[in-house]
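Recall that a protein's primary structure is simply its ordered list of amino acids. Everything else, from secondary elements to tertiary packing, is in principle encoded there. The following example makes that idea concrete.
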Amino acid sequence: MVARARKSYLDDTSYLTADFIARVKEELERTGFVTDEHKFAPYRETMVEHRDLIAERLEQAGFRGSVGTGFLNGHPQAGYAYYIYDEGRFHSQDALDRAVRAWLDMRYGVR
């Protein structure tokens, strides 16, 4: 009997459509990051796991930034968020974390 490898949701790259890449590019240019909490983004660490593919397709679409990955923990509503971001956009990790937290606060109506 041959054992089969189990497929994981992390193996699925079907979300990497031209529309998805265009939306990611627009959001990176607007805010500097895209989290797994964005309505158009896949859940959990999927984008983080596919950073290289996303970066390659963003470059093909004309994005001139450098794509990094991150994780934020301890948000009162979201709990945590995985994200990709434009590495040239923020002067520090703290500034990036504050921006992601503020976006999550707005998304979930936290005051």
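Residues 93-108 form the longest helix (16 residues). The chain has a mean pLDDT of 91.
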